[in-house]
Specification:
about 25% strand, Ribosomal Protein S5, domain 2, about 375 residues, four-stranded antiparallel sheet, binds alpha-D-galactopyranose, single chain, alpha+beta, six-stranded mixed sheet, 11 helices, about 45% helix
């Protein structure tokens, strides 16, 4: 990837670039908890967005995407730019955000290529944002710590793209470590690395569907959580425990109560899952994954028939500890924890079963946890 990207950059822009890689992520457990100040457990994965970049002498940013075969260009001086509802928003949003935070950027030429499946719940957007941020900052000799990069990318997505996401995806892309999952407290941003188990694999299965609802439903869920927290007199649902649910349910009403119950119980599941992982109790970890899926399906209502089918197929297969949807929902991927010696048979069975049920051919792969975003040596 690095060799040809440098050469392609040279052909297109006539000079030698620096190279930056920012990975996507998979979330093991802790879904729709990050914006409630709660806990999540993602891992950065082998799929990434790469940006080759070199500074310009003016304030233009020109970006070519190899995947999309498209070029965009904008001026850093166009501060009032409106979002275009295309991939340009992720790049321009990040550039605008860096300047909003008081840094002055040089213009830059960027060549971008990625292999994070788009719109599949594996954070293709966060990886594009983080790769862009690293590239633009480096072209202007601005050195920011990974936490500042994760935060500014999240703010770009919230403020410019209009998706009121939490910090999980950008944080995982910046802070991943090889072979480790990340237990993150989204309130304090304290985090702990948890070694992934030997002898078991994380298998990701892409349903190949993406239902349109996703971003409007996402912002809607977030708003409901905020209102549930206000009713209960706390700043975030993170501050409530399952013992508090019965007390607040009459005030919330059934619909809001279900959303709040998901968030509150999911936070507790993350903590139990972390303990199970530390102690090598994979059956317990797997049971929590199934429980998370059921809660997302029934209480939070962000699953869809294709995700449910994939999870049920996993549940019926030998050697599977647990399975659940991963990411925002309404399509995208499931993640299953599978005994090492059962992975090959599991993958084959899942592919056949899913295709028979939906007429769609799923993409299935074993995930490896990798290091977070960094500069890579150019060829
Ligand atoms: C998306 C958002 C994250 C998180 C997940 C759901 O990936 O970008 O911040 O809220 O959905 O867990």
């Amino acid at each position: 990837m690095t060799d040809t990207l440098s050469l392609d950059f040279h052909k297109l822009f006539g000079r030698k670039p620096r190279l930056f890689r920012a990975p996507g992520r998979v979330n093991l457990i802790g879904e729709h908890t990050d914006y409630n100040d709660g806990f999540v457990m993602p891992a950065a994965i082998q799929f990434a967005t790469w940006a080759a970049a070199a500074p310009r002498h003016d304030r233009a940013v020109r970006v070519h995407s190899i995947n999309l075969g498209a070029t965009i260009e904008f001026s850093l001086d166009h501060r009032g730019a409106a979002p275009t509802r295309t991939w340009q928003d992720y790049v321009q949003g990040v550039a605008l955000q860096i300047e909003k935070e008081g840094h002055t950027l040089h213009g830059a030429d960027l060549l971008i290529r990625g292999d994070v499946p788009l719109g599949s719940g594996l954070s293709s957007s966060a990886s594009l944002e983080v790769a862009t941020a690293r590239a633009l900052l480096a072209c202007s000799s601005i050195d920011l710590p990974p936490l500042a990069i994760a935060r500014l990318c999240q703010r770009a997505e919230v403020e410019f793209v209009g998706m009121r996401c939490g910090i999980m995806d950008q944080f995982a892309s910046c802070f991943g470590e090889e072979g480790q999952a990340l237990l993150l407290d989204c309130r304090t941003l304290e985090h702990e690395y948890l070694p992934l188990p030997q002898g078991a694999s994380l298998v990701v299965a892409n349903t190949m569907v993406k239902h349109e609802l996703a971003s409007s439903a996402y912002n809607d869920r977030r708003q409901v959580c905020e209102s549930a927290a206000r009713t209960a007199g706390v700043t975030h649902l993170r501050d409530l425990h399952s013992a508090d649910i019965a007390r607040w349910l009459p005030h919330w009403g059934a619909a809001i109560g279900r959303r709040a119950r998901h968030t509150i119980t999911e936070n507790e599941r993350v903590q139990s899952a972390a303990a199970a992982l530390r102690e090598g109790r994979l059956e317990d970890f797997g049971a929590l994954m199934y429980a998370s899926h059921e809660s997302l399906r029934d209480d939070y209502e962000v699953s869809c028939p294709e995700l449910d089918t994939m999870v049920e197929l996993a549940r019926a297969a030998p050697g599977v500890y647990g399975s659940r949807m991963t990411g925002g929902g309404f399509g995208g991927c499931t993640i299953s924890l599978v005994r090492g010696d059962a992975v090959a048979a599991f993958t084959a069975r899942l592919a056949t079963g899913y295709q028979a049920a939906t007429s769609l051919a799923p993409a299935i792969f074993v995930c490896h946890a990798v290091a977070g975003a960094r500069e890579e040596a150019a060829a």
